[in-house]
Specification:
The protein is built from 2 helices and 4 strands. 13% of the residues are buried.
Length: 76
């Protein structure tokens, strides 16, 4: 699986970029969102709780005031 954080402008809803976080395990990512790994197939919004859990390990400095973030799992 490939895991990507997609960034969208809050005011424009324009895609600002994508960050590959496939170095993080699916098991860890699923647990952050409270979803069983076998059901971890949708796009998941990243809020304060998820950002706090992901920030250090992903290297992403989340700006939740100006950007909407989503974690997207992709089958490769």
């Amino acid at each position: 699986m490939k895991y990507v954080i997609s960034l969208f402008g809050k005011n424009t809803e324009k895609l600002l970029g994508e960050i590959d976080v496939s170095h993080l395990s699916g098991t860890f990512l699923a647990s952050v969102f409270g979803v069983p790994l076998s059901e971890f197939v949708d796009s998941y919004p990243i809020g304060e709780r998820e950002a706090a859990a992901l920030s250090e390990l992903s290297g992403v400095d989340f700006d939740l005031q100006g950007v909407d973030y989503f974690l997207d799992p992709y089958r490769t």
